[in-house]
Amino acid sequence: MKNFYWFKQISNNGRSGRRLSLGEYKNAVSWSKYLVSSGAEIKGEGEVEWSADMSQLFIGNKFASGRHSRIYRGIYKQRDVAIKIISQPEEDEELASTLEKQFTSEVALLFRLSHPNIVTFVAACKKPPVFCIITEYLAGGSLRKYLHQQEPHSVPLELVLKLALDIARGMLYLHSQGVLHRDLKSENLLLTEDMCVKVADFGISCLESQCGSAKGFTGTYRWMAPEMIKEKHHTKKVDVYSFGIVLWELLTAMTPFDNMTPEQAAFAVCQKNARPPLPAGCPLAFSHLINRCWSSNPDKRPHFDEIVGILERYSEWLEQDPEFFSNYKPSSEQSMCCFLQCMASVKA
Ligand SMILES: Nc1ncnc2c1ncn2[C@@H]1O[C@H](COP(=O)(O)OP(=O)(O)OP(=O)(O)O)[C@@H](O)[C@H]1O
């Protein structure tokens, strides 16, 4: 594979694997000294359960980065993985401590989650000032990257529906586990090769019972619910708001509020109740749902069980009637249900 060298990131005995390119070498040595174990260690609570066996980890090319992380491809126990490496800055103690807290919380949450639409956790390692989180590798990249490669408004409605349902099922599971994601956006939704979506990046997620206020929050304004922008008390419904924005992204393949800075977008959402414009030809089935999801009143936003139910019904109806999206009227839901029940009884 051109320009792709594996580096066996082990060596308690100092041996390393194959040669790295100069850039990779510089990157690797900057943190490898921390990741390589130096003998017996005392591990914190729960750490034994998720601690990576570093002798089984091969680290390859860096392929993405986050605000405070670099993401590498790798192999762990013969499995394709993504390795998120977070390094604490020496010069900023407050940020260093926030990053450590985020790492600990992300691992604790990911470790207990298991669902086809949630990225699968593999292992982690904690060697301050470097932490790593190993997850399954998703070859399709982020949904944001995929949407940016499409012409605006060009994603077929069947695909929009399928992707939306994947995301909603992942979120329904997450909420059923009492977890709020709090940073749901297309960048944190990853695709498999066969276009299945998985929810990722639990850095600022929390257990509903322990979320507290949104003070000093580092989520992303373009996708953030107004109550969270205002640093008010928030509930699971902040994820439903973000889901509404993601649904808009799926339909338009555009960036929300792309003519504004994130701060301007935050101001417009809170002070002027602004939302990204729904396309003129947006099927009512979607505009109706999006408007409910991004309602400024959290109580008016549906729960994910209702959203999954609605999207599943849309899928069924689309199967029965290829013109479903043009024919749909919100008031027709009832008659469509009757129609399907009749069809089912005729078949029986
Ligand atoms: N398991 C994975 N498989 C494939 N790509 C991944 C995986 N994990 C992360 N990525 C890529 O890396 C990017 C950043 O990952 P992630 O969001 O987890 O990092 P982060 O440090 O939390 O970022 P930020 O804080 O800026 O949101 C993702 O948008 C995606 O493109």
From TrEMBL:
MF terms from GO for this chain are: ATP binding; protein kinase activity; protein serine/threonine kinase activity
Q: Which SMART domains match?
A: S_TKc
Name its GO BP terms in alphabetical order.
signal transduction
Q: Which UniProt keywords apply?
A: ATP-binding, Kinase, Nucleotide-binding, Serine/threonine-protein kinase, Transferase
Report the EC number(s), separated by commas if there are several: 2.7.11.1
The record's InterPro entries line, in alphabetical order, gives:
Kinase-like_dom_sf, Prot_kinase_dom, Ser-Thr/Tyr_kinase_cat_dom, Ser/Thr_kinase_AS, Ser/Thr_Kinases-Pseudokinases
**What enzyme class is recorded for this protein?**
transferase
Q: Cellular component GO terms, alphabetically?
A: cytoplasm
Recorded superkingdom? Eukaryota
| Domain annotation Protein kinase: ranges | 57-318
Q: Which Pfam families match?
A: PK_Tyr_Ser-Thr
Q: Which Gene3D superfamilies match?
A: Phosphorylase Kinase, domain 1, Transferase(Phosphotransferase) domain 1
Catalysed reaction(s)?
Answer: L-seryl-[protein] + ATP = O-phospho-L-seryl-[protein] + ADP + H(+); L-threonyl-[protein] + ATP = O-phospho-L-threonyl-[protein] + ADP + H(+)
Keyword Metal-binding annotated: no
PANTHER family in the cross-refs: SERINE/THREONINE-PROTEIN KINASE TNNI3K-RELATED (PTHR44329), SERINE_THREONINE-PROTEIN KINASE HT1-LIKE (PTHR44329:SF277)
Q: Which family does it belong to?
A: Belongs to the protein kinase superfamily. TKL Ser/Thr protein kinase family. RAF subfamily.
- The protein in question is named non-specific serine/threonine protein kinase
